[in-house]
Every structure is written in C-alpha cells, then in structure tokens.
Amino acid sequence: MLSGVNGPEIHFSFDPALHLFVASAHSTAGTPVATDGSSTLGHVVESLGVPLTEVGRLVVDGAEVSVSHVPQEGERIEVHAIERPQRLPGAPLRFLLDVHLGTLARRLRLLGVDAAYTNEDPGDAALAALSAKEQRVLLSRDRGLLRRREIWAGAFIYSDRPDEQLRDVLGRFAPTLAPWTRCTACNGRLMDADKDSVREHLEHGTQRTYDVFAQCTACGRVYWRGAHHARLEAIVEQALRESAT
User: Fold this and answer.
1) Residue ranges of the Ubiquitin Mut7-C domain (predicted)?
2) Which of 75, 84, 102, 240 is most buried (CB neighbours < 10 A)?
3) How far apart are CA 195 and CA 202, in angstroms?
C-alpha cells in the first residue's frame, strides 16, 4: 500500500475473486485509499496486494481505463478479476513454472502442454527474462515474482494441491491438449520407438513384458505403459473431460 501520502482519495471495489490478495480493510466496496497524485492505477492496485496478472477490467466511474490511468480525487474504481478463458496472443500457449511447481509441470507435460521447468531455482530475474524472451506464461505462487515488469504474461497459482493447480490452469487458459506426446522429465517431444532401438535402456523384465515404447527426442528417456500407467491415465481422462465442458 502507498505510504506517507496525502493526495487524492479514491474508492475501490474489488471483485470477490481478488479478496485473497487484499487486506480485509480494503475488501469492502467503496473503501477509500489515499494516493500520491502521480502513481498509476496499476501501481496503486499492486500496492494494495493484487498482482496485475490477476486483474481484468479496470472501471473508473463507469468507464473502462488502462493500468496507466492516474487516479483523480473522488474516483470510484472497480477492479475486476481476469476473464476466463484468458486469451493471449500466439498459439499454442507455452508456460514457464517456478521451482515450487514441479508436479504441476509434469502434469502439464503429460497432457502435451509445453511447460518449461527446472528443479534448480534460477532466480526471479532469470525467470522473468525467460518469460519475455520465449513468450511463456509464468506460473507462480510468488506475488513478488509476478509483479516484475519484464514478464511476458503470468498467472498466480491459487492452490498448493496439484489436482486443483492443474484444474485452475486448464480452466484459465484452455490450452490445446495432446496427451502422451511430451517427456514429463524434460518437456521434449516423444516419438514411437521399437523395442530393438531402445533395448539397451530396458531392464530384462521390461523387455519381456512390454512391446510398445516411446522415446524422448531430446533426452532419450524411454516410456512404456508400466505399473504407474493407470494413475496417469486417470489424470489424463479427468483433464480431457473437464476441458470438453
């Protein structure tokens, strides 16, 4: 929140979906906030705790404005949540996940969604730069990271439960799904492989039991329908059902 200011006083009304971010004192419609008279509306909204990645329309006295609007005395401001599904330029969508979202990254890859991730934290600056360079949507539960100006696009992950995280991302962005086409380990593309070509990567029991294989074109990892396949299939089927509704 802006501190030490005695400039124009404006009045906020936040979408209930954004109440998670704002202090209880500012969640009531019409809450007055003093500004410094020069900060943009986007800056004021972020100072109250709401990442702009989560903000949709900004309406001032009934008229929609941009984040660069400088609030004036007595204005009444409605802050709406982002509309879903959120449409971004370019296709297909590509994502970048911070170090805390490894399970979500693997599940997105399982569904064929391009999801860059490393389990070594490169730091906020590097993540933001990569988001901009590769035009990837940065997914994070770190509000400070999502406030970095250089990111191309971002989204706050509201839950700490992987099932809910996946549902949230799919519902918000509606990415095209192509299950079983990406390596869950490195995000590379998978291609069909015959047993002879991957035999050196297989234990004897796997060689005897399975005949259908896929291999990552990037890291060489080999996949087959092992004991864990039923659990992964359930994740895929649930995601396909929900994306069809």
Assistant:
1) 8-86
2) 75
3) 9
Residues 74 and 131 in one domain: no
Q: Supply the pTM of this predicted model.
A: 0.91
User: Which token pair is 142?
Assistant: 């770190």
One domain, residues 30 and 142: no
Q: Exposed/middle/buried for 93, CB within 10 Å: 0-12, 13-18, 19+?
A: buried
